Amino acid sequence: MPVSDQEEIAASVRKQSHGELLDGVVEDALERVRRGWQDRGYFRVHVTGEARELARTATEIHITLFTHVDEHPKYALSRITFKHSNVDIDYLRSLFPIKDGEVFSREKIATGLENLRKAYGSMGYLNYTGLPDTEFDDKSRMISLVVDLDSGKQFFIGSIRVLGLDEAAGQVLLRDLPLKVGEVYNTRLWELGLRKHGAMFPTCECRSEQDVHMDEEKGTVALTLDFRPCND
After folding, report:
1. Of 192, 186, 184, nearest to 219 (Cα)?
2. pTM (2 d.p.)
3. pLDDT tens digits for range 22-32
4. Given 150, 171, 206, which residue is the final one in a domain?
5. Is residue 182 a contact partner of residue 209, using CB atoms and an 8 Å limit?
């Protein structure tokens, strides 16, 4: 790997702060080094190392990290395919910010998998799972990614309740929401609605995780916007 890339990885490790304890510091640093190499095509890289304490203050410990990196071959992406898809394949492929033939990047693949989760959530598939599997061609130094998709049941909006507002204000709010009863539940639009009206929520721990209740049998979700004051 070019020295400039190695220095960039080292700089990213140095930027991390771990507080006063050394527990897990070496493991975390080595994992960051490993990810740095994997983001540059060295998917099978093997990283080992150890730390030595340089100085200690009341709040900080300064260490030197010695690492040994066995790169192994550099790989490029051959292709990405999907099993059991009920969505347009070209659309799913576009969610991965990496082209066929490019240097294989763990980070870009992780971004694509997260984009898949969000995309299925925006289509109402709340129980979606995607299991990735890598296939290596050591002769050509290429990696193929196969994602086994299980969309699960598609959920629709069964009801939307507004608590803590008078009827008139509640109706105005419901008309302003980007989601309506009977529509496919869209996680992205629901989150946008929560952020738009977030200033109206009580100044306490957000209840958003309690605002979506799934009925697995009916395939519906009940949504609640709760503006009532929090109990002390």
Report:
1. 184
2. 0.80
3. 557 788 888 89
4. 150
5. no
